[in-house]
Amino acid sequence: MSVVLPPAAWRDRAGLAALCAALDAGADGARFVGGVVRDTLLGLPVHDIDIATRFGPQAVIERVRAAGLKAVPTGLAHGTITAVLPDGPVEVTTLRRDVSTDGRHAEVAFTDDWREDAARRDFTINALYADPSSGAVHDYFGGLDDLAVRRVRFIGDPLQRIAEDHLRILRFFRFSARFGAAIDPGGLAACTARANDLMALSRERVADELLKLLVAAAAPETVALMIAHGIFRPVLPEIISADRLARVATFERAVGLPPHAIRRLAALLPDDPALADTIGARLKLSNAQRKRLIAAVEPVLATPRALAYQLGLEGAADRLALHAAADEALSSWRIIADWPVPRLPLSGGELVARGLRKGPDVARTLRAIEARWVAEDFPGGDRFAAIRDEGVAQALAALNSA
Hints:
The protein is of the alpha+beta class. 50% of the residues lie in helices and 11% in strands.
């Protein structure tokens, strides 16, 4: 039975029809490929559009520009041109076959054979092509059958596919966590056998896949399986349990927060800020990500409002999800979810006007007043004025007695 793409909003994007016409899509010169086909068949939102074509990169550039569209040579060596459409970029890649691979990089040659191009892809569900005009889906390796039962399966020999690109180990688990109803046993066995291959990858590539995996629908169950099979041991041996990850996922669902990768990564680590910093550096996380990871694993709880003031709402959610009991986390979040986090109603200039010296004296007094204000649950009006006046009086007395 033939399968065609159902109607989808992305198919009406401005400029897409012109791009497909420029690539002779009606004469089988180009097809949609990969995630755009897979997700459309599943009824999921599509963000990125990829097109495979029989034309070489230079011909693609010429045809795209002749159609009045901008062509950017983003990956000429691998045959990829980015066509810039009014509604966003579309990647156009010449059909390829692998000439040599080393587990990290591939040397490719261009081809005009659709099956050859499909054969070098990782999973059957990612090797689906669709004709832009008719929507007819082309499937060379049983991807439609696998998609029907939500099975993530390597194309061909899993061990060979992993040898070609070691990152496919993590991609197997990420796609399984997103789509898989049950883990494919052949893929699991191959990933387990070749887990040490992950050590050859850059930590940036590991981090990118891991953070995507952690926000997938079945991340807690998948990560638990990965731990049981020693997948993390070569690159993140500190990850030894997924129990807290499951608790964090439950908290996020209960309070309506979207899954957050750094919060979930923190759930997998020991409560050791120094170690979290080390892991953040190892994974080449951004400074903001490392700071959040460190703050999340700090096993210190305060009143809900104090947490929100000190860490922001997201940071407070991290700390509550990781360190509070389930009922306490939920009740605490309800207190702060819609609370407008205040700012200290006092400036250093006001303290100088009251007789304090600029510099350390002002900073120290501000901190003391702020700490008392937070401890008393952010009072305003006369009570804050009293806290302020007492703080200034104590600071001036200390200066006069020095």
